[in-house]
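User: Predict the full complex structure for these chains.
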Amino acid sequence: MPKKISAMDIYKLLPKANCKKCGYPSCMAFAAKLLEKEATLDQCPILDTPKFKKNKEKILELISPPVKEVWFGNDERKAVMGGDEVMYRYQLSFFNPTPIGIDISDELSEEEIKNRAKEIENFVFERTGEKLKLDFIVIRNASGNAEKFKKAIEIVEKETKMPICIASLNPEVIKEALKVVKSKPMVYAATKETLNDFIKVIKELKKEKDVVLVLSSNNVKDLKNMAAKCLANGIEDLVLEPHTYPENIAETLDLNVMIRRSAIEREDKYLGFPILNLPINAYYYALKNDCPISGFFEDKEVVAKMFEATIAATLLNRYADALIMHGMDIWELMPVLTLRQCIYTDPRKPQAVEPGLYPIGNPDENSPVILTTNFSLTFYTVTGDFEKDNVTCWLLVMDTGGKAVDVSVAGGQYCGENAKKLIEETGIAEKVNHRIIILPALAASTRGDIEDKTGWTCVIGTRDSSQVGEFLRKNWDRILKEWKEKNKIN
Amino acid sequence: MIYNDKLGEVMDLNALIKIIEKIGKVEIENITITADELIINIPSAPPIVIPQTPSIKEKLADEGIIEIKDVPELDWEPPIEKYKNSIREVQFGKPKSEGGRGVVVKIGGQRALYRFEEPQPNPPVVTFDIFDIPMPGLPKPIRQFFQDVMEDPCEWARKCVKEFGADMITIHHISTDPKIKDKSPKEAAKLMEDLLQAVDVPFVIGGSGNPQKDPLVLEACAEVTEGDRCLLASANLELDYKKIVDAAMKYDHNVLAWSIMDPNMARDLNRKLIEAGLDPNRIVMDPTTCALGYGIEFSINAMTRLRLNGLKGDKLVNMPMSSGTTNANGAREAWMNNPEWGPREYRLPLWEITTGITMMMCGVDLFMMLNPIAVRTLKEIGKTLTTKPGEVKLNTNNYDWIVAKA
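Assistant: Here is the predicted structure of the two-chain assembly.
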């Protein structure tokens, strides 16, 4: 079981001077904020004095997550991995959404390298108001030639601000490459056989604190001992790569689980490092071998990319803290990025937007009024649909505590009382010359209650927000006209 | 007053200044300063560097010899957990010797979470969705697979088993919905009889979603499929679940217990079903699968908690689980024609695959699916979960990607 520490445990190790230099009113307050991950140890200058050096180290150990947070990159962009405390997201939350890196072979032409690098940097898929992007570039030494490798690295670092991973199994090549790398790179990778050479290279260049070293082995005991050796030699930013087997992904899944459990439940600090997996292996595997998707599409590239996305999704569900992929098509990355977004949503935070009045398009006094909930997913889906379909309306977003329409109807938050309050607070009555509210079909059962409490007329709309545009085009003018006639208004 | 010891006389300032102008400097000894207040400014000097013998390490470094610290070998044991309880095993279909049509499918039975702890006895199972009317509104990339058989549920079922690898078939009696065709329970039962003749795989029997009609439809279908151990879909708190429980116990079937993303609700439903007379070994739980991007993380939490609590000892939730993976197809990212998102022929199967794989990683045993591509993918990955560590020969090279042709 993961250790439980209290603010008191931290407070005991603080200077207790209550000098407020950290920005908090007291050492106890600082201790509490440290625990919640809202403050950092560097904020206390007294902890840097020789007298408190040991205490600072002790506090660090207490509050450090069992899976170390490791970053690589530069001042402008960092890829951050790890930082997790729990085995299952329902226990707390998962932290640091898995960075995804795309490969660039150093055998491509300079122009191709530049274009691919920029493409990776500029890739974006937007959903629910969030821009989902790629996180790092992997330059791989396909040529075997150190000069080509260096050139490719230089181009990528010149043309983009992306964090980079340099990939070669040859420590001599890595040594040459490290001489030209400007940022803090992730170095892929040392194996059991080459570990001593990699450590030597890093120490020669005095880069122990300036690289993230990937340790690669399918034997967990070996990984543990490799990590211990690195730590003893001052290399502390490590990533574990347990081999990705597209022909039997269960092997990789087991290795991920065993490493993670050792870190979190057995408190094994030598395995407390982020895990890197390689869906890119699935891509190259499917180009030459049968996979479940073979036969459904003529294009082998398409098959390979779909298999790669499938393996990436599987690994994302099992503790992958970083992924290296090859395909960049939007259709391949959409499900992977969406899954990542979902898994790393903080379960503790209600997913809600500010309730209130949102004008869509350029509504005027004759425009329809539509009532929806403040659940983020509902809100972004509805506004996205309306914008796409050129819907013009006044969107009333009701506070249902972040619950969707059907759930809040069942739970009672979507009701007349709340609607009345919303109408008053937003002053919508002054913005339109009618008193008609359109309800989503899922809220049809609340019609009577809302009409009673607000005095407005309710019209039942469509089941899905994507159908609203057509519904309004066909019906709104007629609805408005009939209402005005009925209420004797011109 | 200044005393000039060279000349042996006292000098005044003007004489002193004349000497300084001539020679440029003068040395004054034995100075007595009387002052009320003295301010002394000591200019900061650069830190004093004491030359040291370079440490042995750096010397070695200069000579190219880096000292690498060795560490004693550390031990490591695979973190295998022991669980209090196991998941109940549920059987569908009966062997011919017991009067069934021959094909038996089992789900559940796990004694641990992972195959490295204990062998997983039953691979995940796929049940293919078919409908008793040609489903309108199915996106073309899926419809193309069975466009030719949608008019005839029996042909449809045959194709799913023969061509798409369905382990079971889910028949949705949509036409019994009063708003659609309002077909009677008797008519639904007739279709069941035909289907039993068409294929020999076990069935999941689904209503139309109408809470008043469904229990009657399920009851009628349960009767004509007596002894076949079908899955009656579903019992939930919105309808007369007692009727479904009775049908299951009388005609030897299993029941799908459907709740909405809350492990406590699932537990409560199970308790009520058992109180109403249902054998707990006939329950399969469906905590609801939300499509990828539309709440799937809630499903992840619900499934994970139910599976963990079941293994830890809660006998009210240690049942196998089911996922309505077909729900993935409702996501706009899956079906919408949008050139910015690339071809939907690729998005559609990937959405169902990703949703299903996520549920599989949470321990789900039974998958209700619609896309043949997703079906084959989930089945093959599901099979790997039941292999034993080391059983499958691994022959890919983990590092080929570094040198692969671009």
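Chain A touches chain B through 91 residues (CB under 8 Å).
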